[in-house]
Design the sequence.
C-alpha cells in the first residue's frame, strides 16, 4: 500500500508543478506581450497536455488497471496507445520551443524547416499507428520491443530539438548585449540539462524502480527554473505592456515633440521600446552600430534618462 501511494503521489506532483509553470508563464505573457514569451507559453501548454495525457495519465491508468488485476499485456498496450495519441502534442510543443528561441533574436522560422519538421512528425505518427495496428500484441515480447523502440525514438527527438536550440542560441547570441546574452544562454543551458536528465531517466527505466516517475517529475517540473530566470530578465529589460498600440504611438508623438527628438532618433526610440538590441536596431534601420550608439546617447542626453528601461517607462 505504501508503494502504491508513493507511486500515485509521484505521478500527481508533476501535474501540479507543470500547472504552476504554465500559470506563471501565462502571467508573464499577459504582462509583457512579447512573441518569444508567447511561443514559450504555448510550448509549455502543448508539453503539459502530452505529459498529462500520455505520460502521467498512462501511469495513473496503469496504476488503476494493476489494482484491478488486468492482464499486463493489456496494460502495456493501453500505455502505447496513450503515448501514440500524444505524438501531435509533443511535436507541436517542441516546434514552439524552437520558434521561441528564434523569436528571441527576431528571426522567423523558414518555410522549408516548417514543412520538413511537420512532415517528419506526421510520418512518425502514421507509421507508428500502422505498426501498432498490424502488430500482434498477443506476444509480450512484441509489446516490449515496441516500448524500447518508443523510448529510443523519443530520446533521439529530444536530443535533436534541445541540442539544436542550444547551439542556435550560442551562435546567435554572440553579438547581443551582455544581459540578453547571459539570460538566453542560461535559458538554453537549462533546457540542455532538461534534455540530459530526461534522456537518462528514460534509458534507465527498465533498470531502476520509480525512474519513470522521476522522468515525469523532471519533464513537467523543471521548467520552473528557466521561468525564474525569464522573470528576472524581463523585469530588468522590459516594461509591462499596459497600453494599446495606438496609445503608445500617441505617447511617442508627444514624447518626441516635448524633447525635440529627430525623426531618425524617433525610429530608434520605437525599436528600443520593442526590446531590440543596438545590433538589431542597426540591422533594422540599415545604419552602422556606432550610429545607433550615437543616436541612443543623444536621446539619453535630451531626455535625462540613464538606460533603456527608464526611457521606455518615460514614454509609457
Sequence:
Amino acid at each position: 500500500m505504501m508503494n502504491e501511494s508513493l507511486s500515485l503521489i509521484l505521478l500527481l506532483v508533476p501535474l501540479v508543478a507543470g500547472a504552476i509553470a504554465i500559470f506563471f508563464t501565462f502571467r508573464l505573457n499577459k504582462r509583457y506581450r512579447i512573441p518569444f514569451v508567447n511561443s514559450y507559453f504555448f510550448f509549455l501548454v502543448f508539453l503539459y497536455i502530452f505529459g498529462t495525457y500520455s505520460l502521467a495519465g498512462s501511469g495513473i491508468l496503469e496504476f488503476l488497471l494493476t489494482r484491478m488485476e488486468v492482464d499486463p499485456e493489456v496494460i502495456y498496450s493501453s500505455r502505447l496507445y496513450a503515448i501514440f495519441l500524444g505524438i501531435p502534442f509533443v511535436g507541436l510543443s517542441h516546434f514552439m520551443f524552437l520558434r521561441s528561441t528564434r523569436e528571441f533574436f527576431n528571426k522567423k522560422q523558414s518555410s522549408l524547416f516548417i514543412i520538413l519538421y511537420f512532415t517528419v512528425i506526421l510520418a512518425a505518427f502514421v507509421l507508428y499507428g500502422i505498426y501498432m495496428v498490424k502488430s500482434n500484441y498477443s506476444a509480450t515480447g512484441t509489446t516490449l520491443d515496441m516500448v524500447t523502440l518508443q523510448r529510443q525514438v523519443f530520446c533521439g527527438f529530444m536530443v535533436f530539438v534541445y541540442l539544436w536550440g542550444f547551439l542556435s542560441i550560442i551562435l546567435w547570441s554572440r553579438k547581443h548585449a551582455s544581459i540578453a546574452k547571459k539570460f538566453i544562454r542560461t535559458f538554453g543551458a537549462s533546457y540542455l540539462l532538461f534534455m540530459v536528465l530526461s534522456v537518462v531517466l528514460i534509458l534507465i527505466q527498465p533498470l531502476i524502480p520509480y525512474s519513470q516517475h522521476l522522468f515525469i517529475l523532471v519533464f513537467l517540473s523543471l521548467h520552473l527554473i528557466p521561468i525564474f530566470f525569464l522573470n528576472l530578465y524581463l523585469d530588468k529589460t522590459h516594461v509591462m505592456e499596459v497600453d494599446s498600440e495606438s496609445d503608445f504611438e500617441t505617447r511617442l508623438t508627444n514624447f518626441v515633440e516635448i524633447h525635440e527628438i529627430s525623426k531618425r532618433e524617433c525610429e530608434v526610440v520605437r525599436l528600443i521600446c520593442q526590446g531590440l538590441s543596438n545590433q538589431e536596431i542597426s540591422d533594422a534601420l540599415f545604419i552602422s552600430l556606432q550610429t545607433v550608439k550615437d543616436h541612443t546617447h543623444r536621446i539619453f542626453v535630451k531626455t535625462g534618462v540613464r538606460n533603456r528601461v527608464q526611457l521606455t517607462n518615460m514614454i509609457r
